Amino acid sequence: MGSDETHTAFFYATLMAPEVFFTVCYRSATQDVAVLKSLHDFHPAILPGYSRRRVKYADYPGITADADHEVRGMYVTGLTAANMYKLDQFEGDEYVRETVKVRLLPKPGGSKGQEGESNGKAEDEVVETEVYVYKDPAHLEDREWDFEEFRTQRMKLWTREDYGFEDTDHFAPKEVEDEAVAAAV
C-alpha cells in the first residue's frame, strides 16, 4: 500500500461529528484547521443491511448485520494510511473493519451540478467503503443510539476545543463537566 493512496470510510456514530473525527485523526493543535478540513469530504450516506444499537454503559454504539434495517451516517473521503491507523487504534478490539457498500444521499444545502451531482458524487450512487462493525452483539442495548443526544450531552468530552468549529455550540451540561473533572482527578 503506497503512502499516497487514500481511503474512504463510513462513520455511523461519534466520528460522524467532524469535531470528534479531527480530534482522533489530528491530535496536534499546531495544524491549520482550514487545511485539515479541506483534506476530507463528509457526505451523508445509508448503509443497508445493518442496525445501530447503543453499547451497554458507553457513549457510543455498534452496528451488526441486520437485513431488515439500515444505518444513516457519513461517507468520508481523503483518509490516509496514518488516519486509518489512528482510527483502528480509536476503535480498538471491540470492532472489526469490513468492506461494505453505501448509498450516497444529497448533501444538505449542497449545490447540485450537472446530472444530479453534489460535490462530485452523484446522489444515490453506491460506493464501496470500509466500516467498523461491532464484534459482540451481546453487549448492545435493545435501543437505537441517538446522535443528537451524544452531540448535546457527551460530545464535549470527546473533542479538543482548539479545532475552531465555530458553527457548533454544543456544550455538555454542568453535571457532565463535573463528572469529567471528577474522573480526571
TrEMBL record:
Keywords: Transferase. Pfam families: GGACT (PF06094). This is Putative gamma-glutamylcyclotransferase. Residues 10-146 form the Gamma-glutamylcyclotransferase AIG2-like domain. It comes from Microdochium trichocladiopsis. Belongs to the gamma-glutamylcyclotransferase family. InterPro entries: AIG2-like (IPR045038), AIG2-like_dom (IPR009288), GGCT-like (IPR013024), GGCT-like_sf (IPR036568). GO terms for molecular function: transferase activity. It comes from the Eukaryota.
